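Form 7-S
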Amino acid sequence: AILTAGKRDFGTDSGLPVPLLMSRDGGLPETLTGCEIFASNDQHAYMRVPETVSVKVGDRIGLGVSHPCTTFDKWQILFLVNDEYDIVGALKTYF
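Output:
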């Protein structure tokens, strides 16, 4: 699968991001298991998907960063979300 996030969006010097969640058609995210980001370029990440997982065009994939420090220099504001993923606040980072 090709994701619309890349080196401009996340740090890569300490490892690639980890796929954690997936949501489809505006639904709440569900745990994503067995997938792996194996490469990235400036604007895309490439994810291996096992046959047991169904990923379709338009699905939203939630990534966990492998090391937060290398991502904080790209994102100086982090958004806080509630359980429904509504933005409820923001945090300024000083890295």
